[in-house]
Design goal:
The structure holds two protein chains of two kinds. The two termini of chain A are 22 Å apart. Chain A is mostly helical. In chain A, 79% of the residues lie in helices and 0% in strands. Chain A has one domain. Chain A contains twelve helices and no strands. By secondary structure, chain B is mainly α. The chains are: A mainly alpha, B mainly alpha. Chains A and B meet through helix 2, helix 9 and helix 10 of A and helix 2 of B.
């Protein structure tokens, strides 16, 4: 079996396993949209602030589910990988000709499929409730590409946590940490409208802000090269860092077995 | 009566000891309210400038009341997780056999929830004041605000205890927290009721949390409004959830305490 077939085989397993655990796909599909509804309903009047970039808070906030959904997919995927370690599946796999890279990319392949399904779902719901995409159909496709890239980047960190700790509990405990990154960002207001200095600085240092702003720009602005460059650049850098560290962790983990 | 109290103190002390000596129990209960307070009061302070937003003591105080009530409710829910843990480990079974009056068990858990929240509320208040929160209310107003939060804490505990004693498994955790989470967030969290989107305003009007929030905010602002209604509602909820929890206790007894 060549590397491609190995990756496909493990990706298929990852997708099937996700489908068989409804909590793993229902939560990422429903919860981010519920939170979006609450925030959009609660902060609709914020669009009256001078300088607010949209007259619809819902359109402004539609980028949020993409990021929160990616967090859910990441944690679930990390937990699945950690479970493979805890149950000894990884040990048994290491006795086969399966290559380490196939394990990592096959696993992340499942996360990417889930991320893509989520992105299509969020955008469809957004369009159904009246949001229009300023960058058009091509922009929607770019949103899907960026969403998948974000899921890959976050997923690699989920895999890293699983490979380093080998514990489902430890991967679960990552969720609040990711959540902090999400909330201390420009998710609720544009950075130039955040009044509290330290919060604006933290949001500017937080890579999640740039991911949100890139998706948001495609929805409410159109084609903003700076926002897109920062968003794609951030996602690519995070993915490279995550994948590199995960590869090292996998090598260590397999050496230990 | 003394049997009830002695059981209550024993269970309460155990819950408090467990909470304050186990960082993985103590820290989430403390970190989440602080985190929400920071994210909402810090990140959204500009909402103070939204036309029609006229809360006199500023956005930090506006959010503080929400986070205070939220922390009170969730201190109760987190204690509910502890009750389930006691059932799963078999401790609750031994406790029921040993307790001369089992109502004391419920009272003990309530003491644990209150102690847990008191610590969180103290830290939260200190952080809010350090962050420059303005307080318009006098001592009596603030006493009423914290008393209201204690009633919310009791509601959270009694609701989750009712679930915990009926189902006796940690898989019931979402059932304990989701209704409370939803009722808290389908209320005027970020702006006053009049500034909510129409559909959310409609839901918030029928949500009892709205009255508690608005009364709490009026107390911190020093212009008490609908406070008597809010206390009547909170007391009614405590009574209703007490009946719910007591029936749960009876069901646990009937099931042999798991």
């Amino acid at each position: 079996m060549n590397l491609g077939a190995q990756v496909l085989s493990l990706a298929k397993r990852s997708v099937v396993r996700t489908i068989r655990q409804p909590a793993n796909w229902i939560t990422p599909l429903i919860f981010p949209l519920a939170l979006m509804a609450v925030n959009a309903g609660g902060l609709d009047s914020a669009t009256a602030l001078p300088g607010f970039p949209s007259d619809s808070f819902l359109a402004f906030f539609l980028a949020f589910p993409f990021i929160q959904g990616a967090l859910f997919a990441t944690v679930n995927a990390g937990v699945d990988l950690a479970r493979d370690i805890q149950t000894g599946f990884l040990n048994r796999l290491s006795l086969t000709p399966m290559r380490g890279a196939a394990l990592l990319f096959g696993h992340l392949g499942g996360v990417i499929v889930m991320g893509f399904v989520q992105a299509v779902w969020y955008l469809t719901v957004g369009l159904l409730v009246g949001v229009s995409i300023a960058s058009g159909v091509l922009g929607a496709l770019v949103i899907f590409v960026l969403a998948v890239l974000i899921v890959l980047a976050f997923g690699s960190f989920g895999a890293l946590a699983a490979l380093r700790t080998g514990s489902t509990e430890a991967v679960h405990s990552l969720f609040p940490v990711f959540f902090v990154f999400l909330f201390i960002s420009s998710m609720n207001l544009p950075r130039n409208l955040i009044e509290t200095d330290w919060f604006r600085t933290a949001a500017s240092l937080n890579p999640v802000s740039y991911l949100i702003e890139a998706i948001r720009s495609l929805i409410i602005v159109g084609w903003d090269p700076e926002a897109l460059a920062l968003g794609f650049g951030t996602a690519i850098v995070l993915a490279i860092i995550g994948l590199t560290l995960s590869s090292f962790a996998l090598r260590e983990r397999l050496a230990r077995t | 009566m003394s049997a009830t109290l002695s059981v209550a103190w024993a269970v309460g002390w155990r819950m408090l000891h467990k909470n304050f000596t186990t960082p993985s129990l103590l820290l989430p209960g403390l970190a989440f309210p602080l985190f929400f307070f920071t994210a909402f009061a810090g990140g959204l302070s500009r909402v103070n400038d939204v036309p029609g937003f006229d809360f006199p003591v500023g956005y930090t105080a506006f959010q503080f009341v929400f986070v205070l009530l939220q922390s009170a409710a969730f201190a109760g829910v987190f204690t509910g997780f502890g009750i389930v843990g006691d059932f799963e480990s078999g401790f609750a079974r031994r406790l029921m056999i040993a307790a001369p009056d089992r109502r004391g068990i419920l009272l003990g858990y309530a003491i644990g929830a209150l102690g847990r929240w008191t610590f969180t509320a103290t830290v939260l208040t200190a952080v809010a004041l350090a962050a420059g929160m303005e307080v318009g209310g006098n001592g009596v107003d603030l006493f009423a605000l914290y008393t209201l939060a204690i009633l919310v804490n009791a509601c959270g505990l009694l609701w989750s205890a009712g679930i915990a004693m009926r189902l006796r498994t940690l898989q019931a955790a979402p059932l304990m927290q989701l209704p409370i989470f939803l009722s808290l967030f389908f209320a005027p969290v970020f702006v006053p009721l009049s500034l909510l989107a129409n559909w959310l305003q409609f839901i918030a009007h029928g949500n009892p949390v709205t009255l508690l929030l608005e009364a709490g905010r009026s107390l911190i602002a020093g212009s008490p409004t609908h406070v008597a209604y809010a206390f009547a509602l909170a007391l009614a909820l405590v009574v209703a959830f007490f009946v719910w929890a007591m029936r749960g206790l009876r069901k646990a007894e009937a099931a042999g305490a798991g």
